[in-house]
Amino acid sequence: MAGLDRKRESKACSLRVSSSAKMVLKKKKEVQVDAFFFDHRQLEKLQKFSKAEEQNLASLLLHCGQLNNGIQQIQCIKQIMPLVKMMDQNSAFDPMVKACLDILGETYFSLGVKNPLKKVLASSLNGLPEQLMPLGVQSFVRCLREELKTTDIYLYRKVLDNLASCMEDFSLGKASIKNLFEEVLQFLQKSLLDIQEENRKNRGNRVVQTQLMHDLLMAIKVSMMLVQKLQENIQGSLWKNHESCIWQSMCSLLKSSISFLMDETLLQTVQTTSGLAFILFTKAMYEPVEELPSLVSDLLLGLKKHAGMPAWFVSNCGTLCTEELSDSVLLFLCHGALAMLDWKNSSMGESGEKLLLDIASVLLSLSSELKESSMAICLSKTVAVWTNSALAALISDSPSLKIKLNGNSEVIGKLLEYVYTHWEHPLDVVRHQTKLIFRNLLQIHQTIVTGCNLKSDPFFARLTKHLLSLEWHVKGKYASLGCLVECVGTESILQLDRTIPGQILDMMNDQSLAPYASDLLETMFTNHKVQFTSSCKESSWIDQWHDIWVSPLLLILCEGNHDQTTYIIDYYLPKLLRCSPDSLSYMMRILQASADANLGSCSTRGALGALMACLRTARAHGHLELSSIMSNGLVSTECIKQGLVHQHNQVCIDALGLLCETHRSTEVVSEEEMQLILFFLEYSLNSQSPSVRQQICSLLRKLFCRIQESSQVLYKLEQNKTKQELLEDSTKRHPSGILQQYNDFMSSVCDRLFEALFPGSSHSTRFSALTILGSVAEIFSVPKGQVHIFKLDQEIDSTRVQTLIQCFASTFEEVKVLAFELLMKLRDVAFSLQDSENVDLLFQAAVDLSTSTKPYDCVTASYLLNFLVYHKELQRICLGKWIEHSPQTDENTSASTMEKNTLAVIKLLLVNVEEEIFQAKKSLLQAAASFPMYGRVHCITGALQQLPFNNLMLMTEWKQMVARLILMSYELSAVVSPVVQSSSPEGLIPMDNDSEMADRLQMILHEIQPQDTNDYFMQAKILKEHCKIESEKLAVRKPMENICTEMRGKERQMCDVTAQMVLVCCWRSMKEVSLLLGTLCKLLPTQAASEPSDGLITVDQVKNIGDYFKHHLLQSRHRGAFELAYAGFVQLTEMLSRCNSRSLRKMPEQWLSCVLEEIKSCDPSSTLCATRRSAGIPFYIQALLASEPKKSKTDLLKMTMKELLSLAAPLNESSSVIPQVHALNILRALFRDTRLGENIMPYVADGIQAAILGFMSPVWAVRNSSTLLFSALITRIFGVKREKDENSKKNRMTGREFFSRFPSLYPFLLKQLEVVANTSNSEAEELKIHPSLFLLLLILGKLYPSPMDGTYSALSMAPFVPFIIRCGHSPVYRSREMSGRALVPFVMVNEVPHTVMSLLRGLPDCTSPCIRQNNIHGTLLQAKSLFGDQSCLSRCPCDAEYSPGEVAEARGPRKCCI
Question: Contact at 8 Å (CB) between 195 and 154?
Answer without folding.
Answer: no
